Amino acid sequence: MQKIITLIVIYVCIVSCDNPKVNNEASKTFDSINGSTKSVMNEYSGIYLIAENKIKTCDAAIYSIVDESGKLELLSKELIVEGKNKANLVVHAKGKIDANNLIISEVITIEPKNFRNTCLPYDFWCLGNEPFWQVQISKNENLIDFYNPMEQELIHFDYVQSIEKNNSFVYTANTNKNEIKVTIHTQKCSDGMSERMYNYAVSVMLNGNEYKGCAIKFGDKIE
Fold first, then answer.
1. Which of 52, 110, 181, 195 is the least crowded, having the fewest Cβ atoms under 10 Å away?
2. pTM (2 decimals)?
């Protein structure tokens, strides 16, 4: 009797190992316990959309944020002046995807968005000094944003397609309170504070005030 039972056990084991269906069922059980591939803990980088409490990752996917670390809001407040329009931040965090949510377990870094750290393609990033200012133009993010880093104040416009003429790109946008015209010329430009050379010069008219500087096209190598 003992030999018969032993033979039956061996047979069952052999059949199970050779049967893909059995192995698949075991795999499904494993997945149900450990979660799908997207539920595995990973590192994610992207744009923290503060007003919506969402993140747009480097592959352009958008997820609502569930911050189990308790640090994201705290750290973001340290970078934003109370009462000012909120500029989006770049966040690098550890977490997992659950449906349409990114569940954050650890905030690795968080910092103001700039042309060096953003991973999402943009049309142009314009820079000037005295006073310092920036304009990001991005169809991908649906924005033309004028940003004063000294005051941490952002003026937002929805993206509009440029008009191209004589090797120049002209973007004109307005809201109920503000209007902006950004003219980007294809010509070498120096920021006046470093030895960097840019491929584009820019003139910005914002509510009647003029700003001049240089511009970067996404993918440009700065000399």
1. 195
2. 0.73
